[in-house]
Amino acid sequence: MDAAALAERVRAGDVRALAKVISMVENGESGVRSVIKDLAPMVAGARVIGLTGAPGAGKSTVTSALVKALRARGERAAVLAVDPSSPFSGGALLGDRVRMQEHATDPGVFIRSMGSRGQLGGLAAATPQAIRVLDAAGFGVILIETVGVGQAEVEIAAAADTTALLVVPGMGDAVQAAKAGVLEVADVLVVNKADRPETQRTVRDLRSMIALSAGRWRPPVVTTVATSGEGVDELVRQLDRHWAWLAESGERARQRLARARDEVSALAFGAVRARLEVPDELAARVADGRLGPHEAAEELLASVGL
Amino acid sequence: MDAAALAERVRAGDVRALAKVISMVENGESGVRSVIKDLAPMVAGARVIGLTGAPGAGKSTVTSALVKALRARGERAAVLAVDPSSPFSGGALLGDRVRMQEHATDPGVFIRSMGSRGQLGGLAAATPQAIRVLDAAGFGVILIETVGVGQAEVEIAAAADTTALLVVPGMGDAVQAAKAGVLEVADVLVVNKADRPETQRTVRDLRSMIALSAGRWRPPVVTTVATSGEGVDELVRQLDRHWAWLAESGERARQRLARARDEVSALAFGAVRARLEVPDELAARVADGRLGPHEAAEELLASVGL
């Protein structure tokens, strides 16, 4: 099927065409470029919510509960489960998709996992492209679920309007998140599995950790028991409150400009990376000390006209 | 002090000059380039050992015990504690340096921590440069200590001849490491705090995890109680065994060529990144849908002559 036909079918709500285009994004296929161009007029500016947290925090259960709440008020929701953990492993999130099965037959819900294989510029380039495609396909809310708390998650958070960080009671997750800089980018903090002991203490500790941050938005701390649905309404309310604040404060426009900048930058970077292969002969001269690394970098850049 | 004088003092074993040059590397100061060039003839090909593991695995204690063992046989050792965790936090390793104080007055030992601030190309560019400087200053063994198990640690491992992964008894650390691809790059596995229960089980589990890997080198699993020194001799023996294997197998030359390539690539990349700033006007056109991201990336590349 050619690009124009694919774009047309995505536009018409064909789920298989949509899945095909996301795969093209994931694999870094060059053909996806004209599909994205054809879809451009349909991009409506969907709301993007990032959910991150260590393995076991209950991300899939919370995501599923959020999807249910969004569907109840008539919104179409897409879930993109992104696994940045490693080029070696991959597929870690697939098992969790079982928890999403209650939405499997609902045409207003689309669920996909995505790894980093192939894509030039990695997930930093692939995620915004996948968001564009889902947006053009008519999903008003896009949930980006990432496993783990690290720099990769911070990068993916940069693609979201609102980032929710999930932790379980006990301070391990929060401390790890703080070390990785994830706490600084979280807009809403969720203590899930809040029927466990230590919940109130974790809430207090999180509040004191974020009290030190200087941003204009003070992240609320929400407690949930996602398996029973407890606290999910309050979580939705806080996510909505942040979304409204983004518009009122002018932050939404600023963020979207920054996202566009990051997206262009990642694509340009990916293209350059492909051209900056270090020739064996050049690496050998550096390895045996005949040439300094800076001089070699200069020679390499000159050889591609930079 | 000019570059030539700094290089001369580093060569002469001046610790303050050495610390100054490492700071220049860390901050990405352009002046460091001629210092590194002046030091090039002194680079002797030091042995680089990477140590990584989750917080609490006992990296500093193991590092300190290794330094002691290396000093006992007359080798000069430098420790570079690299913190890739976040551009936001930083300094996480400073507290641990207290454990290194037994070596504080030994001129055959140099200890420094380094973060990612400033450096173009990040730690992937800064670490090899710091290694060059320490090598030229006459340290035959350079220990690179990194906190955490993630992609950043995998990148730093790429700068080492031998990478040791530290875990504590219980499978949490090992599973995290496996997910992040760190297990695949570890040459020696160390179960530290081996006076705890579950040690033998962890050793068995690690052995079965690595049995699946297809490399020519089968990573040994060593147990240590670094606080008492137990197992440290065996750890040194296994590190030596890997170092000898690298030479015999031809792997050392191959790795060093790969390292030179990575170093040149990171520097070239850093230089390009600085030139690929996305102008506001271009980002705005992408943000409001007037221009596709791929077309914008093309425009940006064309504007810098690519």
Can you lay out the helices and strands and say which pair or pack?
2 copies of one chain form a homodimer.
Chain A: H1 3-11, H2 15-27, H3 32-39, E1 47-53, H4 59-72, E2 77-82, E3 109-114, H5 122-136, E4 141-147, H6 151-157, E5 162-167, H7 172-179, H8 182-185, E6 188-191, H9 199-210, E7 221-223, H10 232-249, H11 251-275, H12 280-287, H13 293-303
Helix pairs in contact in A: 1-2, 1-3, 2-5, 4-10, 5-11
Structural summary, described in words:
- 2 copies of one chain form a homodimer.
- The first copy, chain A, has 306 residues and is an alpha/beta fold.
- Chain A has 2 domains: 45-251, P-loop containing nucleotide triphosphate hydrolases (Rossmann fold); 276-303, no CATH class.
- Chain A is built from 13 helices and 7 strands.
- The first copy, chain A, has helices at residues 3-11, 15-27, 32-39, 59-72, 122-136, 151-157, 172-179, 182-185, 199-210, 232-249, 251-275, 280-287, 293-303; strands spanning 47-53, 77-82, 109-114, 141-147, 162-167, 188-191, 221-223.
- The longest helix of chain A is centred in the last third of the chain and has 25 residues, at 251-275.
- Chain A is globular, with a radius of gyration of 21 Å.
- At the A-B interface, helix 3, helix 5, helix 6, helix 11 and helix 12 of A face helix 3, helix 5, helix 6, helix 11 and helix 12 of B.
